[in-house]
Design brief:
single chain; mainly alpha; 83% helix; 0% strand
Length: 122
């Protein structure tokens, strides 16, 4: 159990650092849509599709590798809480167009990315 917690901790740390870097470079309050968070959530969705697809396909990944990469890294890299907060800001400022585009695009493209990732390893 301790080894598994450490794997999730390490993966989550790396995922969170990468998400922070993406946010620093791509999120800008002047351009409207928070592209860093969007990119992290879409890339993370694609990665988790690939990782879990590989894990399911002939046991390509061990359970520890899956914990490190899917639960840890992808869990730390993607962020629903930031997504929800950014949507709150859009609604609070009355920017319903950005709210709608960001929310709909995140859900649709995120789901498609998971399915595409799993398709890639099929």
């Amino acid at each position: 159990m301790v080894k598994q917690l450490i794997l999730v901790f390490i993966g989550g740390g790396f995922g969170s650092m990468l998400r922070f870097i993406l946010g620093k470079f791509l999120n800008n309050s002047q351009n409207g849509i928070p592209y860093g968070t969007f990119a992290a959530n879409i890339i993370g969705s694609l990665l988790i599709g690939i990782i879990l697809g590989m894990a399911a396909k002939n046991d390509t990944l061990t359970s520890n590798q899956t914990l490190l990469l899917a639960t840890g890294f992808c869990g730390g890299f993607t962020t629903f809480s930031t997504f929800a907060y950014e949507n709150h800001i859009f609604l609070k400022s009355g920017d319903f167009t950005s709210f709608a585009i960001y929310t709909i695009a995140s859900f649709i493209i995120g789901f498609l990315a998971v399915f595409f990732g799993m398709y890639l390893v099929k």
